[in-house]
Amino acid sequence: MSKRKWKKDEIDEYRKLKGAFFYYNKEDSNFLVQKAFGIGWTVNWANPISWVFVIIIVGVVLLRKYFM
């Protein structure tokens, strides 16, 4: 099955079945999705881009801490 961008109603249904704490959906190609509760966005942890994003942020924080 190929990845595709899921719509909001599909994401909400997935969260009802799997839980809403972390969004981890291998079939969804969205990088950012709306939070289940509150205002804002969260990442799809099954998307490799989200891990690259986290590694870059941690790398920048560590570089600033040790070299500035």
Automatic annotation (TrEMBL):
State which residue ranges cross the membrane: 49-67
> Which keywords accompany this UniProt record?
Membrane, Transmembrane, Transmembrane helix
Q: Which InterPro entries match?
A: DUF5808
List residues of the DUF5808 domain: 26-51
Q: Which domain of life is it from?
A: Bacteria
Name any one Pfam family assigned in the record: DUF5808
* Name under which the protein is recorded: DUF5808 domain-containing protein
Species of provenance:
Neobacillus massiliamazoniensis
Classification lineage: Bacteria, Bacillati, Bacillota, Bacilli, Bacillales
